[in-house]
Amino acid sequence: MQIKGDLMLQIEELSIEVIKPSTPTPAHLKTHKFSLLDQYYGHGYLSVPLFYSSPTNTSASQIIANLKTSLAKSLTLFYPLAGRIKDDYHVECNDEGVKFVHAQVRHCSLSQALTPAGDHLSQLFPKQHTSGEELLGIQVSFFECGGIAIGAYLSHKIMDAHSVCTFMLRWAKIASCGVDNFANSPSVLRPRFHSAYVFPPTKATPLASEQIEVTTERVVFKVFRIEGSKIAALKARAKSCTDDKYPSKMMAVTAFLWTIFGAIDKQRRCRLAVAASLRRRLRTDQSSLETVLPIMHKNTMGNGAVILLTPPMVAASDFAALPDLVKVVEDTVRGVDRRDDGGEISKMMESFFEAVVESNDEGELGVYEVSSWLRLPFYEADFGWGRPVWFVALIEAFKNVITYFETRCGEGVEVLVWMTEEDMARFESVPELLEFVAPVLSVA
Fold it and tell me: What protein family is recorded (predicted)?
């Protein structure tokens, strides 16, 4: 897959260091097993840059020293991240550490870099210093204006969006309040690496995302924004006349985008693949008092989402169909509440990968993968000099992948779209899209 971009950054690496946990990992925690859901994800990475305005009264050397110390403490809590992937079944938590790169961006200000499209964002991660065995790399880049980008490069093998957010918030909290103060706080929620107990792995290695043939077409990504007022309008249009409640932000936006996908993929029926978090769907059958889903606490690390396929769109739909499409998406996502922790989850994940393969082979169905990072408080990641001015996540993606993020004010939605150049041109030209969505040219 080729990714198009224009702006390139001139980055000088000032230092490269390996940061190890401040306390050795105990012997009984030296092996971390992958869960069933972890097994379905390849060895790709989630790349998350957080951008900050220039700190006051703090030098770059002080910032770097504090970030290194607090990262070392964080790795004692998130100990698998300092280990190495050894095979398809486990991580050896051997405290080998993570690469920490201190970099300077030359001839570019933070405002110039806040253009949410292009190869330049990928330069803010230590990709060249990490391999498939490592689970985390950090690059801290200083701009000439004093602004900062903290780029975290995390393995999707054991970290999903929720886990990444938990790690970044814990690291930021330790950096801002001090290692000793954080360690002695009774309110600290400790991350739990027990997902293999919640979702036991299978002995037969399942089809993983990295085994799907990547398209050779040129793929571009762009960020679009739907302001809060437009969200309200979409929710009103997507509300069923028989239902007193308005659909959620995520449901309204997803149904709306589904109509756009149908408009640009007229040769095929299109369907959605929606990532549904199991952390939000803990259900108990009150009649039998038996848990129908295993307990996945909010501080459980690992992959905690299953990908569900909607039925194909019967025909090209317009705004009049929004309430019906919302119901289809809601019914699809609710289906996970009735599933168990083993065979059914495997069937759902395998169905998704098979559908992607068929779609890439130009089958009769087009598949658009939708995942939501809404409600994840990345904007609370204050390392001691204020909240981020912007963040985004660059998932190592295939074409037709859509991710939602909160805006900084929390009212709107930013939509990251990966498509072929040809499809992106069609996507941006749909009149109904332009009524509600605007491309983000700069977030400065």
Answer: Belongs to the plant acyltransferase family.
- Which residues lie across from 330 on neighbouring strands? none
pLDDT above 90 covers a percentage of the chain that reads 51
10 Å Cβ neighbour count for 347? 11
Supply 322's token pair.
Answer: 């929004």
Distance CA 293, CA 199 (A): 10
- Name the burial class of residue 242, with classes exposed (0-12), middle (13-18) and buried (19+) by CB atoms within 10 angstroms of its CB: exposed
Is 2-198 a domain of CATH 3.30.559.10? yes
Closest-CA residue to 251 (of 372, 162, 366, 339):
372
Task: Share the mean pLDDT of the chain.
Answer: 85
Closest Cα partner for 372 from 393, 345, 356, 344? Answer: 393
Six-digit token string for 215: 């398209």
CB 66 within 8 A of CB 82: no
Task: Give the separation between CA 349 and CA 347, rounded to whole angstroms.
Answer: 6
As a whole number of angstroms, the distance between CA 104 and CA 116 comes to: 20
| pLDDT value for 130 | 72
Closest by CA to 381, choosing from 111, 150, 186, is 150
**Which residue ranges does the chain devote to CATH 3.30.559.10?**
2-198, 219-439
Q: How does pLDDT run across 57-112, given as a tens digit for each residue? A: 889 999 999 999 999 999 999 999 999 998 888 999 999 999 999 999 998 888 88
Q: Show Cβ contacts of residue 61 under 8 Å, excluding neighbours closer than 6 positions.
A: none
Given its phi and psi angles, is residue 400 left (phi above 0), alpha (psi -120 to 50 degrees) or beta?
A: left
272-301: average pLDDT: 66
d(CA 167, CA 422): 37
Q: What is the pTM of this model?
A: 0.91
pLDDT at 131 over 60: yes
CATH 3.40.50.300 fits 219-439, yes or no: no
pLDDT (tens digit, 9 = 90+) per residue, 398-412? Answer: 789 999 999 998 889
Q: How far apart are CA 398 and CA 361, in angstroms?
A: 13
